[in-house]
Amino acid sequence: MTSAPSSASQAAVELSAAPDRSEAAERAAQLFEESFGYQPDGVWSAPGRVNIIGEHVDYQDGLCLPMAISHRCFAAAARTPTNRLRLRSAQDETVLDIDARTLAPETVTGWPAYVAGVLWALGSRISGASTRGMDILIDGQVPLGAGLSSSAALECSAAEAIEDLLSLGTEPLERVRAAITAETDFAGASTGGLDQSASVLSREGHALFLDCRDFSTRPVPWDLASQGLALLITDTRAEHSHVDGEYTARRADSERAAQELGVATLRDVDAADVAALESLLAQIPDEVVRRRAHHVITEIQRVRDVDALLAAGAVREHVAELGALLNASHDSLRDDYEVTVPQLDVAVEAARAAGAHGARMTGGGFGGSTIALVEAEQAEQVAAAIAAAFAEHGFDSPVFFLALPSEGAGQDR
Ligand code: ADP
Ligand code: MG
């Protein structure tokens, strides 16, 4: 717990770090024992994520650069000699007890669908002679619905547990796909796959360069701590509203833009030559669709630019250029793509004014979280400035996190 300087704000700000990973795994094991009356076979976990840059491009075969955060979802689990799937969560009272052989879309509602969906998605991997019964206790640290992907952390922790309990022999990418299938086809939510890739495939100290065209990935050095830098996450706690409808509309606009430009996806458009891009975009008659295309095409280019800067040296060496790219990404999401809300814009403006190198919304928008690239020693000051701006606007108090690029999904004990 730390206090803000009184000059910046009357309110104290707390920058919450994730609880220690092994202690959290121990706690999940204890909660399992309290729930089910015996000790689990193991504990597995998977992290939430922030996207550093590359927003609203995944469904246009784009490029993105997420990283896993320190906050994780833990799954304590045990195999049982039955076919019952029993689920509990420390964050939600809803429980599930179902014959795992009968799982099908729409048979499960609420949060358990994200976990049951993973078992269902991995079904073809399970031999017919094998029982599918298991008990799973979920204990998550990723705030729910804050745009930090608690849903992927939940699915991917379950996927690790199921893989090991049933000895399925799946590759990490297969578990990514099972988690995506669970969310889209079983739980009926929409996801582009960025979240699950980041949650499973991220490496400590690195961001994950993700090519959404073929889901290929590679780690990119993103070690902020050793360079005196930090990534401040602000959960704006703005209510998400109309998200699904707006998401569908943006997808439709970008598909229409691709069609009018005569390309399969907007990934195929070259944005390196700005003048050429402007005259190409002039072919799109509708002004709104033109702006949507401008966002997607320039955002993919910004990911290339960030990737090139990180390949050329440490974050510290190019911190001003990296910050400018983060800023340009936010401005494009605000003006061209129109997926920000006042809380996101205010958090970003306040962070910039308080000395952040760059700041932007992260995730799908319409609420959720922002990130700010800051000097580590100024993180508290920037958070205090954001808190003060929120108070001034009469917004709910934001919640702050400091995120280190963390390791993807795996077994804890
Ligand atoms: P986000 O992924 O950004 O946090 P989503 O709406 O995609 O937001 O996912 C949030 C949903 O995931 C919750 O409403 C809940 O159903 C489920 N969820 C995530 N973590 C947990 C948890 N620890 N316990 C129960 N449900 C969870
Ligand atoms: Mg989610």
* Number of structural units classed as domains: 2
Give the overall form: globular
Low confidence ranges: 1-10
What's the number of helices? 11
Question: Helix/strand/pairing class, anyone?
Answer: alpha+beta
**Amino-to-carboxy terminus distance:** 29 Å
CA gyration radius, whole angstroms: 21 Å
Q: What's the multimeric state?
A: single chain
Count the beta strands.
Answer: 13
Order of helices and strands: EHEEEEHEHHHEEEHHHHHEEHEE
CATH architecture of the largest domain: 2-Layer Sandwich
**How large a portion of the residues is in β-strands, by DSSP E?**
15-25%
Helix content: 25-40%
CATH fold topology of the largest domain: Ribosomal Protein S5, domain 2
| Name of the top-level CATH class of the largest domain | Alpha Beta
The overall average pLDDT, rounded, is 95
List the ligand species: adenosine-5'-diphosphate, magnesium ion
Described by strand count, sense and barrel closure, the largest sheet is: 8 strands, mixed
Would you kindly provide a written description of the structure presented here, covering whatever features stand out?
The two termini are 29 Å apart. With 413 residues, the protein is of the alpha+beta class. It is 39% helix and 22% strand. The chain is built from eleven helices and 13 strands. The protein folds into two domains: 206 residues, 2-Layer Sandwich (Ribosomal Protein S5, domain 2), CATH 3.30.230.10; 179 residues, GHMP kinase, C-terminal domain (Alpha-Beta Plaits). The protein is globular and about 65 Å long. Strands 2, 3, 4, 5, 6, 7, 8 and 13 form an eight-stranded mixed β-sheet that branches. The N terminus is likely disordered. Helix 6 crosses helix 8 and helix 10 crosses helix 11. The structure holds adenosine-5'-diphosphate and magnesium ion (MG). Magnesium ion (MG) binds next to helix 3.
